[in-house]
């Protein structure tokens, strides 16, 4: 894979670069929650986050699209091979955001601090890092929304 810079690439180029990386491709094969894969979950979170950014942009509230694209696609990369990396769900819950930052830095060595913080805080309040930017709060909301929608869909299927 050719190296890419977060400062000079477009959001589309960043998205294509991350999605085509070997680690992200592996995430597309890992089961996640009830009816999806880890990679598919991250793509859905990214779509929801980018939609929120567009809405805010329309309201005159500027958001950083490169940060949003990278943080959303990378936020759960630290969960790839979770059964080998973590002893239980609690450990996974607490440690995967930090490991996602490490994986994102391997893909994008010039990953900026705001994007690192957004990834690190996406499990708040279950982890102690609170979001410190608009993009961090948007990622938190998008991740909770997509995860909850999946759980509700699964429960509704069960009571049909
Ligand atoms: Fe996560
Ligand atoms: Fe997630």
Mean pLDDT: 94
Q: Which parts are unreliable, with pLDDT below 50 for 5 consecutive residues or more?
A: none
Helix percent band: 55-70%
Strand order across the largest sheet: 1-2
What is the annotated CATH architecture?
Orthogonal Bundle
What is the CATH superfamily label? Hypothetical protein af1432
Q: How many H/I helical runs? A: 8
Supply the helix-strand structural class.
mainly alpha
What's the structural domain tally?
A: 1
**Gyration radius, in Å:** 15 Å
Cofactors and ligands = fe (ii) ion
Describe this structure in words.
This protein is mostly helical. The protein has one domain: Orthogonal Bundle (Hypothetical protein af1432), CATH 1.10.3210. It has helices at residues 11-19, 22-27, 38-58, 65-74, 82-85, 89-107, 113-120, 134-158, and strands at 31-32, 36-37. The radius of gyration is 15 Å and the shape is globular. The chain starts with 10 loop residues before the first helix and ends with a helix. The mean pLDDT is 94. Bound molecules: fe (ii) ion (2 copies).
């Amino acid at each position: 894979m050719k190296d890419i810079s977060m400062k000079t690439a477009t959001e589309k180029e960043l998205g294509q670069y991350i999605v085509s990386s070997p680690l992200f491709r592996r995430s597309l094969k890992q089961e996640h929650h009830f009816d999806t894969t880890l990679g598919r979950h991250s793509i859905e979170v990214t779509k929801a986050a980018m939609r929120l950014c567009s809405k805010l942009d329309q309201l005159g509230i500027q958001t950083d699209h490169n940060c949003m694209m990278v943080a959303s696609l990378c936020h759960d990369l630290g969960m790839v091979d979770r059964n080998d990396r973590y002893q239980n769900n609690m450990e996974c819950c607490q440690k995967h955001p930090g490991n996602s930052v490490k994986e994102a830095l391997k893909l994008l060595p010039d990953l900026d601090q705001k994007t690192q913080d957004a990834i690190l805080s996406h499990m708040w309040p279950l982890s102690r890092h609170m979001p410190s930017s608009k993009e961090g709060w948007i990622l938190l909301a998008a991740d909770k929304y997509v995860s909850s929608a999946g759980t509700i869909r699964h429960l509704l299927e069960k009571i049909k």
